[in-house]
Amino acid sequence: MKKLNCDILIIGAGLAGMVTAAKLIQQGKKVLLIDPQDQIGGKFSSSLQFFPEIPGSAEALQSLENILNLKIAAESADQTLHCFEDHEWKAHMGFGENTPKFYEIFQNNLSPQQHILNLQSEEWLPRFAEIIGDRFLPRTQATQIVVENGTIKNIVANAAIEIHAQKFIFCAPLHVLTALLPNELWPKNLRTQWGKAQAISALFLNIAHTLPLNDTPEGILILNNNAEEIVFGKVAADKLSSQWMIHITKDEVEDSEIAGNKLKAMKKMIKKALPQAFEDHKERVNLVEDFDALNFKPAKDIHFHELTNFWLATAAIGPRPRWIAAIDAAQMVVAEVAVGISPGAAPEIGL
Questions:
Q1: How much is the average pLDDT of 49-57?
Q2: Are 49 and 84 in contact (CB under 8 A)?
């Protein structure tokens, strides 16, 4: 079995993993970042690119700018929300007494302010790739965690590679960790709360349009056929591409027929509002599992006391929206794990 060595191994190359890896590399640490996906960023780049102005959002964007040495955010502006009703776009005035399903998760999308970006994620993700460089191993999935005497000895990836490190940071979705770590090694409050929670995934539809969507209003678009099905969308400034999202439960994800019907329902709502959307188009569908969770409120202490060299930095544990929570978690963990490791402490990685 092939063996690799590093100071710190980071599992999961989404936003939390990228921030964690970049900050540690900038501190001189020998890091490895692994992810099953082909490119850095995980599935973040295909998520709905919307940055509402809410508590913590400005600080999170500033943190990204400091890491990447780029000016990402320009200013804040009023956010326009439109819904399609009675065959026309109207200003969204709220849901009234019929609180829709998953409202707890998507309510931050309804913020009256948004951050206007100088650079969209597809423009600043390459900067993360530049900083992390060959420390990123694509198509590499953790398949086993080897524990000895209260510490992680190594992680097996792809059932063929042993990766040894002094410290391990998990930044992937929590459902992945449940398959890797036995129950007795989890913090009791975290495992209990996760067992009670309802994991919610997000189904994203990205469309490249041949015909511009000229009559579409700017801002966040809301489509709903009833209180149970809410679709969020955003059309690019050039009107030639759009992104759409619908939430989906774990049970629905596991049933391919139900998941397929969710996608059909989303397309039907889009076509009703924008008849030309699917004329001579290209589309990409992406499922982001554990996008969020309902009824998940772990205690503040989520340290793995049974594992002295393991940290959790995932958006799922934060009380704030996913992208802010990911940055918060990454920065908190970096401050802890950087202690006690000198640059060059691990042998050079043989890639």
A1: 79
A2: no
